[in-house]
Amino acid sequence: MQLISFFGLLGAASLAAAQATNVTTGALGDARPVKNNPVIGEAWIATFDSPALKGTVTAVAAKIGINYTIDVTGLDVAKGPYKYHVHLRPVPVNGTCADTLGHLDSYVRGDSPPCEKSLPQTCEVGDLSGKYGTVAGPDVHYEFNDPYTATNKIQLGYVGERSIVFHDASAARIACANLIKKA
Ligand SMILES: *[C@@H]1O[C@H](CO)[C@@H](O)[C@H](O)[C@H]1NC(C)=O
Ligand SMILES: *[C@@H]1O[C@H](CO)[C@@H](O)[C@H](O)[C@H]1NC(C)=O
Ligand SMILES: *[C@@H]1O[C@H](CO)[C@@H](O)[C@H](O)[C@H]1NC(C)=O
Ligand SMILES: [Cu+2]
Q: Which class does domain 26-181 fall in?
């Protein structure tokens, strides 16, 4: 009896170790929930009008983090599923998505290993689809709260002066747009 439970325990421990090897966290630790957005309800909107997709991603300051609404149409289902992220830099006037650089990664985690959905605090802050799931299209209406992004400039997860980028299944950047504070 004792022998069986000993091996049972060993199995559980090695499974936990195997899972732990795939979970990493930022050099600055796990992302912390944002509780000091200056104006609850303030909206920032990224507007897309490209051949690949049309619509908006709206980021609304919440009591904890940001409420996102993805409202887009026209995605080619054959090229999905699609990832979407907050990228570090805004899109320049010429529209080059490559110039948005990488994901917003305020806690310095890197994108490998991939985000573990059940532990969103360990993921790159800007890796929204890693944390909340990819979208398939053709039309998407999807809402979720992300506790770790912020409309408060002093916070690590600040989304101002940044952009939202969509990627197709090949990781190509199919569309990008700046988050602009609604007047
Ligand atoms: C860990 O990652 C490796 C390589 O990406 C993968 O093959 C393996 O299944 C993962 N293990 C767990 C427990 O998720
Ligand atoms: C954010 O979403 C939560 C959960 O759906 C909701 O209770 C809350 O009222 C929303 N906050 C704002 C400011 O829209
Ligand atoms: C687009 O604009 C950025 C910023 O001015 C510049 O660095 C980049 O070279 C431009 N790219 C193209 C393809 O024109
Ligand atoms: Cu991206």
A: mainly beta
